[in-house]
């Protein structure tokens, strides 16, 4: 909506232009009228639309043609004033003023005009019969108002209609000649209907209508009012209501009715709530809300955004097969001005056997867009009506900006859920196979991919120590030197072909040029391991190269399998991206070996809970010990031991009762109260726990060193 409105009054001399302005301001007819009134500014708080309004007078006697042309170019709406008792002034409306104004304005953006018949107090008849043909001839004329500056008749209404013509113009919405809404308006309202139809059944039920009413006008409709609206549609349109719900035709009919009855501000309120401007285009402020992203930070979708996308997927997955067919996907994107996803998306994310994007693939593609181009993601969410349906200020509330990666490295932990891995290697070494294997496609399925539909990205979920993370693979084209953008990533996958003797040399050279002194973890993958391995033409073997640079050994990989290719390397890459500070580490992430079991146990909520409770118990005991130090010195030794055992046993009971999820805790619950009171038992238990902890730590370090 415009920030202010500028109204210009023009017309023949002595028709009462200045009198109209002065009567509005003083609320009485002036005894003496100057040749021209000074510019009047009406504050926003006294106007119906809460917008500052500037009223400008024109005097032919005091102003030149150049000044008139300047005022026309500055105006938002022009009131052409005539005297109802002066036929000459009426004739001048079409012979002089309308042509003059149209010459100074663009044909595609005509200024709205208001015809003002002043001095209605001097005649007993109306001039509307003469004016109506003029209104039909010129579509830029919004309305005609007969008024009287002397009797103050319709003075406030005149300027209200002028303001309304600017803030709620009829031109973009309605075609008077054809008596129907314009295509752009129909397109915008159709998008609004589809967004509001949250169950995608083709009608707006009572709940959806109430939600629509509340978000647009901040008040719900009473049940009787809802029924009255539907009854009006039923009387005028046979297919306007179906199954007690308002159809698209009924929705469009209602807005046509509003416009025809002069209530087009109702339609404009709806359009502006859904992000449209005066040209019925979505505003940049709506599509691209402000979002600050500091350097070395990434963008991810938050939990609320994933819930919204899940509801969008469920809304359009009509056959409930957890995949979107081409028709379902096309229906989903009908609220977009263009088709945002091309055929390459099917080779970027997971699909089912028929090549349809699955639920996981749908979320993965949105995750990819958010990571690579967050502005485009904001735009897409705007088309889907995210801020409206979730009742948020903007789409920016759907985005999480991660913290600086330097902080992650300092704290040796990350809060990120999306990790980027650049896949580097010579052309033909098998990089595409690595990307497609992440999506679960073997070599046979990859052969059906057309060259023009290939993608340089692949994204899918990977589980690391029970946590779901997104791994984003980017195929970097072969070149002598990598650009700065191609170096930025969380992990690097250097791929060489075991059957090509010249393949490894490129990986070694790129590693030495860009990654040898960086903190980005690297993994070398020996692709096409099903083929005969040849000696690489390099000074040292790939295994020795990895050992020399303290890297994990080369990982054998092939996608020439009968079933889904192994995902071991993807788990390893994600693990390396999550823990880049750990130089010596287990890379299997199998959840079966000693390292993985220990890692999972150390990260478990159970252990953290027990640690917190033990820490609290120790602090409590120390405070009590200090407070009772004097009394303890006087007490009997045996009595003191029994007292301490009672206190500790009560704490241990609470810990074991609240955290009894494993066999150790189950056994502890069966320890009798008599044993807990025995000082000998506690000595044995303490000694055994100490020995167990020392041996366990020694074995853990030995395993790490061996790996």
Automatic annotation (TrEMBL):
Parts of the chain that traverse the membrane: 681-700
Membrane topology label: Single-pass type IV membrane protein
Entry-linked CDD domains: Miro1 (cd01893), Miro2 (cd01892)
The keyword Acetylation is assigned to this record: no
GO cellular component, one term: mitochondrial outer membrane
One annotated GO biological process: cellular homeostasis
Keyword Cell membrane part of the UniProt annotation: no
Record-linked InterPro entries: EF-hand-dom_pair, EF_Hand_1_Ca_BS, EF_hand_assoc_1, EF_hand_assoc_2, EF_hand_dom, Miro, Miro-EF-hand_domain, MIRO_dom
Keyword entries, A-Z: Calcium, GTP-binding, Hydrolase, Membrane, Metal-binding, Mitochondrion, Mitochondrion outer membrane, Nucleotide-binding, Repeat, Transmembrane, Transmembrane helix
Cell compartments where the protein resides: Mitochondrion outer membrane
Task performed by this protein: Atypical mitochondrial nucleoside-triphosphatase (NTPase) involved in mitochondrial trafficking. Probably involved in control of anterograde transport of mitochondria and their subcellular distribution. Promotes mitochondrial fission during high calcium conditions. Can hydrolyze GTP, ATP and UTP. Atypical mitochondrial nucleoside-triphosphatase (NTPase) involved in mitochondrial trafficking. Probably involved in control of anterograde transport of mitochondria and their subcellular distribution. Can hydrolyze GTP, ATP and UTP.
Family: Belongs to the mitochondrial Rho GTPase family.
Subunit structure and binding partners: Homodimer. Interacts with the kinesin-binding proteins TRAK1/OIP106 and TRAK2/GRIF1, forming a link between mitochondria and the trafficking apparatus of the microtubules. Interacts with RAP1GDS1. Interacts with ARMCX1. Found in a complex with KIF5B, OGT, RHOT2 and TRAK1.
Protein name: Mitochondrial Rho GTPase
Species the sequence originates in: Phascolarctos cinereus
